[in-house]
C-alpha cells in the first residue's frame, strides 16, 4: 500500500528471512564467524542462542550462503520429530538412499557410510538444527550419539544447534552434560544498540529502494526505545509506522507515528516480559504468567483508581473467593458455566499429577484458543460467538479490553480473578492453561 508512495520496490520490513536484507551488527558478524569456524575447522557441536526475534533464522540463511563448495548440509527446521523421523529427515536432505521401513540401525549405518565416503572425497558434512530448545531429551541423546561417527582423527559430522536461551539451560543440566562437553563453540545473539538500530532501519529501506531518509532521527530513537533493538520488533514497528505516514500523507515518519504504531502493535502482541501493554487504560479478567505475561479484560465502562484493574465481580464458584461486586453495570453472570472448556485442565493441575504429566496429557487442551474459550465461559460469554482472529479481538467485540503485564503467584492471588498462565515444559513447548483457584 505504501510501497509506491515512498518510492520503494518492495516491503522493506517483511518478516521473511531474506538474506538480501541481512544487516550484520558487530555481534552478528562475530556469530557468523563462530559458525563458519565451527563448521569448517572444528568438530562436535556449535551452539547459537538468542531471544525470539534476534535474527537466528536469518543467520542460518546467511551461513548457508557462505559455506564452501565442499560442504554438504542437512537442515532440520521442525523439532517435533521422533528419532526415526529425525534420522529420515537427515538422510533425505543428504540424498542418502534408505528403505522406507528400515530399522534405526540401518539408517545410522547408511548415514555412517555416506559420511565416510564424503570424508574420503575431502568433503565435510554439517547438520543444522533450528528451534533446538524444543528438542526432546530422546532426540538430544540421539544427536549426541551421532557425534560418535568419526575417524581416528576427526568427527565426521559437524552439528550446529540453534535455539532460544533455554537451549543453554537444557545443555547445562546434569542429564545432558555429555552433550554439553562436546560443544566446541558457543555464541549468544543480543539486541541491537541504538546506533545499530538506526543503521538497520536505513539499511533495509535502502535495499528496498529508498533514495532519501524516511525516518527522522527522533523516530529512529523511538523505534529503538519500543523494540528494545530486537530485529523482528523493529520490522513490525517500521512497517506499521510507514503505513501511518502514508495514511496521513507525510513524507517522513516522525517519532509520534512510531509511538502510535507501537500502541497498535501492542494490542496484538506481547514482545517483552518486562514491558506493560495497556489498552485504553482499562483492564480486568486476567491472563497472567509465572514471571511472564498477564492479560486482563474489563467492560469498557468500568475503571479503577489504582492499577487499572476493574472491580468486576468474577463468577462465584468454589474456586474463586468472594469479593465485592462492581455494581449493576457489570456484565457478569452469578455463577459459572459448568461446561467451561478449561475445567479438565484446571482440575488436572489441582490433582496430584506432576505438571509435566498434565501438560503432556493429550486429553488436556493447552492451546491459546482453548484457554480463552474457558476464560470467556467462566464469565458466561461464548468465545465462538464473537468475531476476531485473536482472543483480544474477540474481547473487544464483547466490550472488553486487554492488558498484558508481568506477574507472580502472589500478584495473581491479590487480584483474585481467574487467569490464563503461560507455561513452558521441559522441552520448551509453550502451553496456556486456565487457573481458577490458588
Helix content: 25-40%
Average pLDDT number: 75
CA-based shape: globular
Distance between the ends? 49 Å
Strand content: 15-25%
CATH superfamily of the largest domain: P-loop containing nucleotide triphosphate hydrolases
Rg: 25 Å
CATH topology tier name of the largest domain: Rossmann fold
Helix/sheet category: alpha/beta
Tell me the name of the CATH class of the largest domain: Alpha Beta
Low-confidence spans? 269-351
Largest sheet: 5 strands, parallel
Counting structural domains, the number is 3
- In N-to-C order, the SSE pattern is HEHEHHEHEHHEHHHHEEEHHHHEHEE
Number of strands: 11
Strand order of the largest sheet: 2-3-4-1-5
Q: Please report the number of helical segments.
A: 16
Reported CATH architecture of the largest domain: 3-Layer(aba) Sandwich
Amino acid at each position: 500500500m505504501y510501497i509506491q508512495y515512498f518510492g520503494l520496490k518492495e516491503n522493506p520490513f517483511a518478516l521473511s528471512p531474506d538474506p538480501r536484507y541481512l544487516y550484520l551488527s558487530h555481534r552478528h558478524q562475530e556469530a557468523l564467524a563462530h559458525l563458519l569456524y565451527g563448521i569448517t575447522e572444528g568438530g562436535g557441536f556449535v551452539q547459537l542462542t538468542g531471544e525470539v526475534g534476534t535474527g537466528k533464522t536469518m543467520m542460518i540463511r546467511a551461513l548457508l550462503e557462505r559455506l564452501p563448495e565442499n560442504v554438504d548440509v542437512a537442515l532440520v527446521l521442525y523439532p517435533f520429530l521422533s528419532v526415526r523421523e529425525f534420522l529420515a529427515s537427515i538422510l533425505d536432505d543428504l540424498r542418502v538412499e534408505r528403505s522406507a521401513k528400515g530399522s534405526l540401525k540401518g539408517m545410522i549405518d547408511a548415514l555412517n557410510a555416506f559420511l565416510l565416503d564424503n570424508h574420503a572425497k575431502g568433503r565435510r558434512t554439517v547438520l543444522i538444527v533450528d528451534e533446538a530448545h524444543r528438542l526432546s531429551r530422546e532426540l538430544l541423546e540421539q544427536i549426541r550419539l551421532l557425534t560418535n561417527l568419526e575417524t581416528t582423527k576427526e568427527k565426521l559430522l559437524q552439528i550446529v544447534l540453534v535455539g532460544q536461551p533455554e537451549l543453554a539451560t537444557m545443555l547445562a543440566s546434569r542429564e545432558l552434560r555429555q552433550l554439553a562437553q562436546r560443544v566446541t563453540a558457543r555464541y549468544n545473539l543480543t539486541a541491537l544498540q541504538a546506533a545499530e538500530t538506526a543503521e538497520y532501519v536505513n539499511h533495509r529501506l535502502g535495499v528496498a529502494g529508498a533514495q532519501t531518509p524516511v525516518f527522522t532521527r527522533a523516530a529512529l530513537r523511538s523505534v529503538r526505545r519500543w523494540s528494545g533493538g530486537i530485529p523482528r520488533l523493529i520490522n513490525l514497528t517500521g512497517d506499521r509506522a510507514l503505513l501511518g505516514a502514508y495514511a496521513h500523507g507525510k513524507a517522513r515518519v516522525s517519532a509520534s507515528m512510531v509511538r502510535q504504531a507501537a500502541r497498535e502493535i501492542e494490542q496484538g502482541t506481547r514482545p517483552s516480559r518486562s514491558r506493560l501493554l495497556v489498552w485504553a487504560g482499562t483492564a480486568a479478567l486476567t491472563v497472567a504468567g509465572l514471571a511472564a505475561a498477564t492479560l486482563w479484560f474489563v467492560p469498557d465502562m468500568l475503571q479503577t483508581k489504582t492499577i487499572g484493574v476493574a472491580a468486576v465481580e468474577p463468577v462465584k464458584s468454589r474456586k474463586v473467593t468472594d469479593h465485592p461486586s462492581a455494581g449493576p453495570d457489570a456484565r457478569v453472570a452469578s455463577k459459572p458455566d459448568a461446561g467451561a472448556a478449561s475445567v479438565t485442565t484446571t482440575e488436572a493441575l489441582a490433582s496430584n499429577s506432576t505438571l509435566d504429566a498434565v501438560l503432556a496429557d493429550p486429553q488436556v487442551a493447552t492451546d491459546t484458543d482453548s484457554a480463552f474459550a474457558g476464560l470467556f465461559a467462566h464469565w458466561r460469554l461464548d468465545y465462538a460467538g464473537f468475531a476476531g482472529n485473536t482472543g483480544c479481538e474477540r474481547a473487544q467485540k464483547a466490550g472488553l479490553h486487554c492488558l498484558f503485564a508481568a506477574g507472580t503467584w502472589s500478584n495473581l492471588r491479590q487480584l483474585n480473578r481467574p487467569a490464563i498462565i503461560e507455561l513452558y515444559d521441559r522441552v520448551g513447548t509453550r502451553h496456556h492453561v486456565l487457573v481458577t483457584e490458588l
